[in-house]
Structure formats: structure tokens, C-alpha cells
Amino acid sequence: MTDIDGALAAFDHALSLAKEPEAPFAALFALTQALVGAKLFTFTTVEIEKGLVRRAYTSDPNSYPSSGTKPVRQDRWFEEVHDARRMFVANKLADIAKVFPDYALIGALGCGSVINLPVVLGDALVGTVNMLHGEDHYTPERQALVERVLPVPAKAAYLAGVYLSRG
User: Fold this and answer.
1) Percentage, residues of the chain above pLDDT 70
2) Residues 6+ apart with CB under 8 A from 76
3) Closest CA to 83 of 111, 40, 47, 123
4) What is the CATH number of domain 4-165?
5) Which of 19, 47, 63, 65 is surrounded by the fewest CB atoms within 10 Å?
């Protein structure tokens, strides 16, 4: 059984000590690990008006570096996460392959399930929390835990990251 209160307290403490823009996302990764686990974790910021996404944090900088931007892709995933503001979940690599062109790398890293949690502020999608693990890892119970616990810490991590990046 996950100690949700303890995990949230540890996140809060880490966030209060954060001095670098990546630190709030590292705290969110630790919280995610404690709640539901993740072999790969990234936080992607979204600038819809510019049509760009950027990986602000990664737990695997060799495979998924946090540099540069890429264009927003208007597809089924975008409709689910951006337009409908719903969490995207896939628990099989075959399902991941339908929406992510880098599915082979995802599989090579031992991942076969994903949750993408939208982060919405001011009625705009500002980012996504992306957690990946082995196939069938994100059970309905883990999905419910993500939806119940992670939205507010994700917003806090985003806002703290923005604050710290401004110097």
C-alpha cells in the first residue's frame, strides 16, 4: 500500500528546497515513483500558440534528452489530451505504436505502457506528465491514483519550474 501522505510530504519538502528549474520535476518524478512507478518519466511543456512542445525534464537524458523543441502533432493523442483534457493510457506496446513514432525505442527501454497526464492552467494545456513502465503496469487502480493525486503536484512542479527558470 502506498503511503500517499508521506509521498506528498516528501514532494512538498523537495519542492520547497528546489533551486534549479529541473528540481521541481525531479520531485514530481520521485512522487510518481512512490505512487505508481515509472521506468521512464518526462515532463513536456506545451506552447499551443507557437505550436511547440519541449521536454523540460527526463529521467533518461541519454535516450530522451531535454533539449530543443518539436512541433505539436495534431492526431488522436492530441485530441484526447489537449482537446478533451483526458489522461491518455496505453498498456500494450502495440497500442503505443499507434500514436508514438518512437515506439521501438520505448520498447527497447523495457516500457510497454504509458500514462500521459495533461497539465492545465488558465484553461490551457501547459504540459504533460509522461510516465512509462512495462506492459500492463498501469492498472485501473494505478490510473485512478494518478488521476486523484498527481494533477495538483504536476501544476505545482510546472509553476515552480517556470519560476526557477526566470532566475
Assistant:
1) 99
2) 98, 99
3) 123
4) 3.30.450.40
5) 19
**Spatial distance between the Cα atoms of 8 and 88, rounded to a whole number of angstroms:** 23
Grid cell locating 122: 488558465
What number is the average pLDDT over the span 58-73?
86
- String of DSSP letters for the chain: ---HHHHHHHHHHHHHH--STTHHHHHHHHHHHHHT--SEEEEEEEEGGGTEEEEEEES-TTTS---SEEEPP-SHHHIIIIIS---EEE-SHHHHHTT-TTHHHHHHTT--EEEEEEEEETTEEEEEEEEEESTT-S-HHHHHHHHHHSHHHHHHHHHHHHHHHT-
pLDDT for the residue numbered 1: 53
Q: Is the model's pLDDT at 72 over the cut of 70?
A: yes
Q: Tell me how far apart the alpha carbons of residues 25 and 107 are, in angstroms, rounded to a whole number.
A: 24
Q: Which residues pair with 119 in a beta bridge?
A: 127
Confidence of residue 159 (pLDDT cuts 50, 70, 90): very high
Whose CA is closest to 28, among 69, 65, 5, 59? 59
